[in-house]
Write a structure and sequence with these properties.
The chain is α/β, with parallel strands linked by helices and 383 residues long. The protein contains 18 helices and 8 strands.
Length: 383
């Protein structure tokens, strides 16, 4: 396990093991490793002591959700009655979370992935405040809980009035050292790679991926399949091609967040504007969008609500730079050609990857790199 990941896991475990236990609420965008964290915790705690629940996959109706969670649970539990309404089913779920026990009667741990997806229950009678009711039930339980969500802004609003038992923890981006460790299997533990090249590889991939674990793993897997001549630039180019896995991943994250927001078409238009140029002020965006500053401000607030854009010093930009690159490539009338993907990825890499102090063989982005070195790292010439 990478050093930062290990330290983060210890922080979460420390919250669980405190007396009384705190409830970590792990916040992080798409691909930052929230699910991997919960899976590591389940293995660490033991499958007989912890239950993982992917709420995004199984939150249908309260009745069916209750059935799915209890049927898959390692903790024995017998419902007192069959629920007659959606509200009764949700109340029984809270009873289960409160009264379930591990072997020997010890408190158990529930790992609830994408907990804000329970908002889908708000359309059922009697469940208008389902998330508030859930937090109240968990806070009063002797059991232990870890919650995650990709919706940072919404989580902060929800927890504004929650008890001090909830501890908000933002999952950190991977450092270059973390990336180097994650990529070690791709390069056989770097047995044939000089230390300078290894360290620069970690810094380069960290910059390309913004330290998001899913992107790092995708680049590592792609380089493994591409063979000994592979490089991160070529790997990212292949991953973002029309048939590439990151194309499909980014499309999922893009559509999922837009469908959780309001103003679908207008929001896509703003993302197109920011894909062309960022950061931009509200006035600059409204001029390009040909809408009033008031309506544009509403659209931007809806994008911030689902963490697609971030505002710093009143200037707006994409939260995820890889997603911005994807919008530039794929939100157009026709799929991009291989040459267009390669050109956009190269420009993206040249803007983000730091030039090395001493250009090693892997220094594809350095101005002093030879033509052969740039070619080996997938760089094409731009007029």
């Amino acid at each position: 396990m990478a050093g930062q990941q290990s330290g983060f896991d210890r922080r979460v475990l420390g919250a669980l093991e405190s007396a009384p236990s705190r409830i970590p609420v792990i916040l992080g965008g798409c691909g930052t490793g929230r699910t991997m964290l919960l899976q590591r915790l389940r293995e660490r705690l033991g499958r007989g002591a912890a239950q993982y629940v992917d709420i995004e996959r199984c939150a249908t109706t309260p009745e069916r959700f209750l059935q799915a969670v209890t049927a898959a649970s390692p903790f024995p539990w017998q419902a007192m009655r069959q629920p007659a309404t959606a509200r009764e089913a949700f109340d029984l779920l809270l009873v289960f979370f409160d009264s379930a026990r591990a072997s020997g009667g010890e408190p158990c741990t529930f790992l609830l992935d994408e907990v804000l997806e329970l908002r889908t229950f708000e359309s059922f009678p009697g469940l208008r405040h389902v998330l508030r009711d859930l937090l109240g039930g968990l806070a009063a339980s002797p059991n232990r809980f870890v919650l995650t969500t990709r919706y940072t802004a919404r989580a902060h609003r929800l927890l504004r009035d929650a008890t001090s038992r909830f501890e908000v923890i933002h999952i950190p981006a991977l450092t270059s050292a973390d990336v180097t460790e994650l990529l070690a299997p791709t390069f056989n533990g770097y047995e044939q790679m000089p230390t300078d090249d290894r360290d620069y590889l970690g810094r380069a991939v960290q910059a390309l991926t913004d330290g998001r674990a899913a992107y790092v793993r995708a680049i590592g897997d792609a380089m493994t399949h591409m063979g000994p001549t592979a490089d991160p630039i070529s790997a990212l180019t292949a991953l973002l091609s029309p048939d590439g896995s990151l194309n499909h991943w980014c499309r999922f994250c893009y559509e999922l967040r837009l469908h959780r927001a309001r103003g679908y078409g207008a929001l896509k238009a703003i993302l197109d504007v920011l894909a062309e140029e960022e950061p931009l002020t509200l006035t600059e965006i409204s001029h390009r969008l040909r809408r009033t500053p008031g309506s544009t401000k509403d659209y931007l607030s809806w994008l911030e609500d689902v963490d697609l854009v971030t505002s710093r010093q009143k200037r707006y930009s994409f939260t995820d730079p890889v997603l911005r690159l994807w919008v530039r490539l794929h939100c157009r009338p026709v799929p991009p050609s291989d040459e267009e993907v390669a050109r956009e990825v190269q420009q993206y890499a040249l803007a983000r990857v730091p030039s090395p102090d001493v250009a090693p063989a892997l220094a594809y982005a350095g101005v002093d790199a030879t033509a052969d070195e740039r070619k080996n790292w997938g760089i094409i010439e731009i007029d």
